[in-house]
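Most newcomers find our protein records easier to grasp once they have seen one. Sequence and backbone structure share a record, each on its own labelled line. Nothing more is needed to start thinking about how sequence determines fold. As an example, a complete record with its sequence and its structure tokens follows.
=====
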Amino acid sequence: MATRRVIVYGGKGALGSTCVSHFKSKNFWVGSIDMSENKDADLNILVEKDADLVQQESSILNSLKSALGDAKLEAVICVAGGWAGGNAKKDLAKTADLMWRQSVWSSVISASIAAHHLKEGGVVTLTGAKAALEGTPGMIGYGLAKSAVHQLTKSLAGKDSGLPQNSLVVSILPITLDTPMNRKWMPTADFTSWTPLEYVAGMFHEWVEEKNRPENGSLLQLSTKNSKTEIIPVQ
């Protein structure tokens, strides 16, 4: 049986590391793209932090082409991102620039990877945010970047987007993910309302196996209550 391959953009973060481990446990070849190495991955491509978007894209695509050759990917999973607060009076340009780099640049490069290396019928997942469906006055840069990811998702799912035929492009819109960092900063929160990382990784795997696939272009809210997660498409 041919080796099945996925790329995890943000593969060293909390959710990314869980995705790498999950797909490795299912006998996939897994590549990680991040600023730090994930030792569990079969391939690590390190992002050059000080390079601009065009340089990052070129470097990553060249590295991936060398590693993959003619082999195709089952999925490109983009779970890179971050969070920053701030309004129009406090560090607007600084936080907007940081959020743009972390969420939009990674999503754009993931789209380029998919256009060049995804198989027909493959999966692309991006990471938006439920908060960005409305105004985010206390975190403007974050909302700006995440709403751009939502728009990119819709565009990639449309005709003539440049992706292979029958690709599935979806954005997940988490509320709060159950990460070690979130537990550290919010130790008194109700963890039963946080979405487990393994749930998200398992959901991605199901889509790769063509099970329970949502509609192409979907923005999917992940709502967890009493430790049970519900997927709610944005209408």
